[in-house]
Amino acid sequence: MPNPTTVLRATAVALAAALAVAACGAGSRVPAQSAAEVACDFPAPPQPVTVNVLAYNSSAIDPFTNTMVKSCSKNGVTLNHEPIDFAGQVQKTTATLAGDTGTYDILETYGFVVPQYASQQKLQPLDDLVAQFDQQYGLSEINADMRQALSYDGKLYGLPMQAQMYVMAYRKDVFEQLGLQPPTTFAELRDVAAKIQQAGEIRYPVALPLLASSDIATAYDAALGSLGVDYVDAATMRPNFDRPEAAQAFDELRSLQAYMDPQVTTFDQPRVQQQMYNGSAAIAIMFSGRMNDLTQASNSRFAQQFAFAPPPSVAGGDTLYNVLSVDGWSIPANAEADPGLLFEMIASSVSVDASRASVPAAYPARDGIVTAESSPYAAAAQQSIGKAPPAEPFPWTSRIANDTRATVADVITGAVPVAEGTARMQEIAMQILAEYQP
Fold first, then answer.
1. Residue pLDDT, tens place only, 393-423
2. CATH code for the structural domain at 4-164+324-385
3. Which alpha helices (H) appear in 268-394, and where do they start and end?
């Protein structure tokens, strides 16, 4: 089994593309009352303080949020966190960072958007606070590459909590019955899906989160990255949507449609989970933070039949159809509460005890915590980490992903021809990049 530290360094912390990179959707399955209680030893402030925390609900994020709220609501400090889905979090993040003052004091962020917000000076750098509280909360034990993933221009803007990568879940009973092996390429995935479909019990065996308003852009970037192509050639500042691989990525994704529910562009990750829960799908590829839910007998009668593997590559080779996102906590530059107080709260939520308590729902940022004994999908996740496409840690990346998302959806649904779609995307990206030209 690969060492997580080694493979993370080997990929230089590959991140996802599209604002939906960490779009694990709504639907907490980790109740607040089961949150861990850990040390959160800040001195009582001179006046009562209310701290508002913005983080979307998912099984991988909830352990950290719930632990923070439970452990740090004391000494005259009240933490508030309202349940919200990913789309709502994106909207509220934009709104709270827009003015001189904001609604939220602590934000859940991820590596893909940090360059954009940091370049706009909307987040507070955390390096001095890390040095101040390192010994108290063991912050030097957080994986260095995950810290780099939440940095921009040499400064840390997010304290890492956990990583998420694509993992493939499949029904081992179905595979065994039909003599199938987990697919390692899209060609093999189509072959396996066709055989399951032909067996007659599962009409649409493949489930992918291709929600047109978010996940579909992540899926396209994962396919393009597996083919070895970035959105932008950073050396020349030229978009790559006019390259043959840009069209190939669309063709490969569209080739799976015969094996997916016709309404797939309305499916986010919770909807994909539901297909696996009820047995209407036999193969799903989504973020690792969704895997533990599949193993819960309370969610599905097939819980004992789910097995896990790395996602396939699109066309062979070592780079998988994959995204890797590092999630963490940031402090808005316009937050009014004492930064030291806020930092102690986020540091406590990623402490050793908090990180251990998050497994197997999450893949925490501290080395050595996720093992085959502690997580049923650990082996698949660790293999997946080392074979994700490389990062594009630039302020323009998330903007291009957002502004091309509607075109990606139109092409995948067949509303727009591939050639027309890639031409549109090239034009959109060039207009954005023009703003960053010297």
1. 899 998 999 999 999 999 999 999 999 999 9
2. 3.40.190.10
3. 269-278, 291-294, 339-349, 352-358, 378-385
